[in-house]
Amino acid sequence: MVLRFRPVVSTRLALGLLLSGGIGSSLAAEIELPTVKVQGQDESGYRNETASVGGFDEAPLLDTPASITVINAALIKDQQARLLSEVLRNDASVGDSYAPIGYYENFVVRGFSLNAASSYKINGRTITGEQNVALENKQQVEVLKGLAGLQSGISEPSGVINYVTKRPEDVRSVTVSTDDRGSGYIATDVGGWFGSEQQLGLRANVAHEDLNSYVEHANGQRDFVSLALDWNISPDALLQLDAEYQNKQQRSVPGYQLLGGTEVPHDASPKKLLGHQSGGKQVGIDSLNLNGKFEYRFSDLWKGNISAARSKVVIDDYSSFAWGCYYVSNCNANTFSPEGDYDIYDYRSPDDTRRDDEVQAAMTGLFDTVGLGHELTFGTSAFRRVIDKRDSVNEYIGSGNIHQDAPSFPPTDKPLNDSHRNLDSRQYGLFVTDRIRFNEQWQTILGGREVRLDEKAFDRNGTESRHTQQYVFLPQASLIYKPIENISLYTSYSKGLSLGGTAPWFATNSSDTLAPTTSRQIEAGVKYDWRRISFAAAVFQTRQAYQYSKPDGAGNFTYVQQGQQKNTGLELSANGWATERLQIATSVAAIRARVNGSGTPDYEGHQAINVPKLRASLYADYALPWVNGLAVLGGVQYSAKKSANRNGTVEVGDYAVVNLGSRYTTKVDGYETVFRLSVDNLFDKRYWRDAGEYMGDDYLFQGAPLTARLSASVNF
Questions:
Q1: Is residue 218 within 8 Å of residue 200, measured between CB atoms?
Q2: How many helices (H) and strands (E) does the chain have?
Q3: Are 646 and 627 within 8 A, CB to CB?
Q4: How far is residue 145's CA from residue 572's CA, in Å, rounded to a whole number?
Q5: Which pairing describes strands 517-530 and 533-551: parallel, antiparallel, or unpaired?
Q6: Are residues 65 and 40 in contact, defined by beta-carbon separation less than 8 angstroms?
Q7: Rounded to whole angstroms, how far apart are CA atoms 411 and 171?
Q8: Looking at the chain, which terminus has fewer C-beta neighbours within 10 angstroms, N or C?
Q9: Distances from the Cα of 367 to the Cαs of 121, 364, 438, in angstroms?
Q10: What are the backbone dihedrals phi and psi of residue 36, each rounded to the nearest 5 degrees, phi first?
Q11: Which residues on neighbouring strands pair with residue 355, listed in sequence order?
């Protein structure tokens, strides 16, 4: 961005100087001085320089010894993303892990699955992951890849997803949208500052969406409302509150299974709803997320904060579920038959309620000792998760075939079971971390968290079936070297603790939850900020106990922790302005995921299930020079082939999906208006986006076909 000024000395000034004798009589009526050029840069766009997910406060990414991806509101708007899966496609280290349409999504990061109980946060506080968090009030989505025991306590080695909410500002906007299937969407974003000294800020987001899915019979609707409040109580005290509520109703779309356990379904349509029953119900998900933070600055060097959150989700889970082929002759397996036959189950589990409560208090201070600079953070936290649900009704009602429409069958008349407490899990933590600066080039971060886990599980009669009490210390250490201000090299070591898995229904120890498992990670990386673009590279190795249903050779399975899964990988990324008109968001991830010591040789010596060896993502925004306000958008996602079962004998193919779009900014009746057009899967590619496992069974989910979406946003 270049501004040019041409300073001019006026006739009146020249005459004044002449009368005062300041200049000669040869002075012209006007003097033109040399042009002054003032040059600046537009720092808006897809690049972010800070994130809060890597520690206990917002920090520069260059000084954070971890691999972190930040997808901000600008990129989310341009891609017209409504689901987290549409956001995370920008990170090559992330893939789907049982993310069916109409249900809540989950993901695999660096080859390990996230956990709905601990891997998702809003403003740093844990939420129940069994929900599709709305994006209308989110400023950015942060992905911390790898172990986060220090920051989160008990968590998976895959990492953490943190949503950062929008803060109050003067904004008035309305967005309307539709797609090639006739869906309808409207959202408003309104905010401002109030009070005698503008000390109180409010921001409200409201949205309604009519979902016309590309899958037949899977339409739905969604309503969302949120409110954010900032109160500058004094120059040293700030209170922030957030509340959001969402209701979503949509039929759940079951996944495919391998044919005969050995073959990927062929000629399968992503538009078919397997097992469709005309009398089936939608899945309803009600979610409420509340959180608040009070921060007080005691001095220029010390500040403290206390934050609290509640997250509650109620799922009315209904599904005509396609699974197995036990009622098809000569099949009797947990997969579809070789001919594509499958059984249909009437699944019912309403009032499935999950609630998380968390509180944390922390203090941060800056001080020097013996020539070393310290940034010390210490505090305590408490977290509770409870699950109240019924034992589900899951009754066989008939069979179908993937190449035909399913017949309609009478629904089950089996009554619902009573709701009861399933789980009461409590975690208490003490944490401390110290960033020690030796000089301008060298610094280290040392820290740890002492975790106390007190977890009780209950049977259907409300009787305590398991009581786990455990203490564990989770250390974390890293070293950072900055040879110059805009280059950072780091290495780190972390230890984590994950909750044990639950045995699937067909295991001999069905429903048993195993003991928590430890995981360890080493990582090294480099980050480089050059002009307006940020580059990053990281190599890592993560180890975790291997949990699976171990076959005994006689048709029985026992869920065990035996052996380990070791994932080794390389990540590369570049985000920002490549030129004055071109900005990019790109990443590449190569991962080698292997199992060893499991006691089942068939599961070893090959890539782990649902983890491609290579994945890449590219998105670009180019502002056309000949049309002011018009930009061309587009990108591609690539995935190498993936194993579709644990023994690695079946694979789904590699794929590349091309997306294209545009953005046009103009004024309509004096109001700034932004039109966006996006076409995803431009060439209508057929591919399997997800080949993961859920509750001990393998499932396959197809990617969306060509999808076009058009929106208009007006800023008043």
A1: no
A2: 4, 43
A3: no
A4: 13
A5: antiparallel
A6: no
A7: 50
A8: N
A9: 31, 10, 13
A10: -100, 125
A11: 312, 386
Token digits of residue 283:
């899945």
Q: What is the mean pLDDT of each run of 10 residues along the chain (716 residues)?
A: 40 38 42 51 76 89 95 96 96 94 95 92 96 98 89 86 97 98 98 96 98 96 98 97 98 95 92 93 97 97 97 96 90 91 96 96 96 96 95 94 94 93 93 95 95 89 86 93 96 90 83 83 97 96 93 86 96 96 97 95 94 97 96 98 94 97 96 97 96 89 97 97
**Which neighbouring-strand residues pair with 473?**
450
Q: Which amino acid is at 52?
A: S
Query: What distance in Å separates the CA atoms of residue 516 and residue 497, rounded to the nearest whole number?
Result: 7
Distance CA 270, CA 516 (A): 38
Over the Cα atoms of the chain, what is R_g?
28
Two tokens, residue 397:
């009602």
The SS3 of residue 653 is coil
Strand, helix or coil at 557?
strand
Of the candidates 576, 523, 608, 424, the one whose C-alpha atom is nearest the C-alpha of residue 70 is: 576
* Gap between the Cα atoms of 711 and 716, Å rounded: 16
Q: Locate the DSSP E strands across 56-183.
A: 59-60, 67-72, 94-96, 107-109, 112-113, 120-122, 125-126, 138-145, 159-165, 171-179
The amino acid sitting at 622 is Y
- What's the CA angle centered on 420, arms 414 and 421, to 5 degrees? 150
Amino acid at 632: V
Distance of CA 299 to the CA centre of its chain: 36
Element (H, E) at 150: helix 149-152
The position carrying tokens 């409040």 is 229
| CB burial string 338-350: b at 16+ within 10 A, e below | bebbbbbbbbbbb
Q: Count of residues for the chain?
A: 716
Residue 394: which of 345, 350, 351, 352 has the closest Cα? Answer: 345
Tokens found for residue 508: 């001999």
Q: Are 708 and 179 in contact (CB under 8 A)?
A: yes
Pair 704, 253: CB distance under 8 Å: no
Do 637 and 682 contact (CB within 8 A), yes or no? no
The answer to whether 513 and 522 have CB atoms below 8 angstroms apart is no
Ordered strands of the 120-122 beta sheet:
67-72, 138-145, 159-165, 120-122, 125-126
